[in-house]
Amino acid sequence: MGCPFKHLLNNEKGALGFFKNTKKQESSQMSSSNTPATSSTEISRFYRELMNSTEASKAKFVGLTEEDLRRLVSIRPIFEKHVSDIVASFYENLSQVPALMSIINNHSSVDKLRQTLERYLLDMVSGEIGQDYIVRRKIIGSVHNRINLFPEWYIGAYTLIQNEVLALLLREMDAVDQARETFASFQRLCSFDMQIAIATYIDSYTSSMMRLNEIERIQHRLNESSEMLVATAEETSASIGEKETHVVQMLDGTRDIQESSRKMVEDVEEGKSEIGSALNEIDRIVEIMDETREKSKELIESANKIGEIVQVIHAISNKTNVLSLNASIEAARAGEHGRGFTVVAKEVRNLAMQTQSALEHIHEQISMVQNNVNSFDNSFEQIAKQTSRFREINTAIMNIMDNSSVQVRSNSEKIKNVSRYILDFQQTFNEISTASDQVAKMAEELSLLSNQLNDKFSIGK
C-alpha cells in the first residue's frame, strides 16, 4: 500500500512532496545550513493571505497572530535538529494502538509516514501559513475520512506532538517564559490546523454519507428495476413462446396452402389437357360434319339429276304408251293379220305403264331423299352452331384455366415469400427469446450484485 496521500495528490511520493515549498520543489532536503529562514516581509505577506482567506475566522477564533508565525519561524532550527526525535517518539506511542497500526499498514507504512510527519512539522515552522498551507490541511482531512481515521485519533495525535514539542522547547530554550510563549503559538497553530482538518473531515464524511444515501436510493431503484426486468423478461419469453407456436401453425398453414396450390395447378393443367383434347375432337367432328354436308350437297345434286332422268324416262314412257295405243288401233284395223302385233303392242303398253309406276315410285323416293337431306342440312346448321358455341365455351374455360393457373402460380410464389418471411420472423423470435433469456439472467446477476452491495453498505454502517 502507498502513502494515504498518494491517490489524492496523484503523486508517487505522496504527501512528502506536497509539503515542500512550491518555490523550492527542486530541493530534496530542508536544513538550516542550506535553507534560509523565511523573511519578516514574507511572513507578513503570508499572514495577510491567511487573513484574506475563507479560514480567517478560524485563525482569529484561536487567536493566531502574525507574531505567532514569527515565533514559530524562530524555532525552525530546533525543529530541524530534533524533528526526527519527535516523530520517533510519536510513532513509538502510536505502535501501542493496534487499531491505528492496522490503518497504517492497510494504507501506507510507518517509514513513509515518518517522513510525511517530519515534513508536516517543518511546514508549521516555515512561516508560509497562507492559502497553500490551508489547502494542504484540507487534503489531510479528506484523506483521514477516506482511510477511516476518526477525529479522536487526530486530536490525540496533536496532544502527543504538543507534549513532545513542549518538552523540547523547555529543554532547548534558555528562557522558560519565552519557551512557554512559543509553545502557546505552536498550540494556536495546532488548533487552527485541527479546525481545518476536522471541518474538512466532517464535510467529506457528510458528502460520503449523502453519496451512500443516494447510492442506497439508486440501489433500491436498481432492485425494483431488476425485479421488473426479470418479470418483463419472463413475460416476454412466455409471449414469444406463444407467438412462436402461432408462427409454427402459420408455417404449417402456408405449407398446406402451397400443397393445395400445387395440386390445384396440377388439376388445372390436367383439365386444360382434357379440354384441349375435347376441342380437338370438336374440331374433328366439325371437319366430318363439313365433309358430310358436302356429301349431302352432292347427294342432292345426284337426286336432282336422277329426277331429271326420271322425267325424261317418264316422258319416253308416256310416248311409248301412246305409241302402243296407236299400234293396238292399227292392229285392230289389220284384222287377222295384225293380231300378233296387237299382243306386242299390249305388252309394250303394259311395260310402259309399269315404267311409269316405277318412275313415280322413284320420284317419290327422290323427293323423300331431298326432303331428308334438306332436314339433315338444317340439323347440321343447328349442330354446327351448337358446336361453335361449345367450342367458344371451352375456349373461354381454357382461358379461365390459363388465368387461374397463372394466378395460382403467382399466389404460390407469394405464399413461398410469406413462408420465407415467417421463417425469418421465427428466427427473429428465437433471437429475441435468447436475448430475453440473457436479459433475465443479467437481471438476476444485477439483483445479486445489488444485494451484495447492500450487504457491504450494511457492514459499513
Automatic annotation (TrEMBL):
Keywords: Transducer
Lineage start: Bacteria, Bacillati, Bacillota, Bacilli, Bacillales
Organism encoding this protein: Aneurinibacillus aneurinilyticus ATCC 12856
An MF annotation (GO) of this entry: oxygen binding
Acetylation keyword on record: no
GO cellular component terms given for this protein: membrane
Name of the protein described by the UniProt record: Methyl-accepting chemotaxis protein signaling domain protein
Pfam family, one: MCPsignal
Keyword Nucleus: no
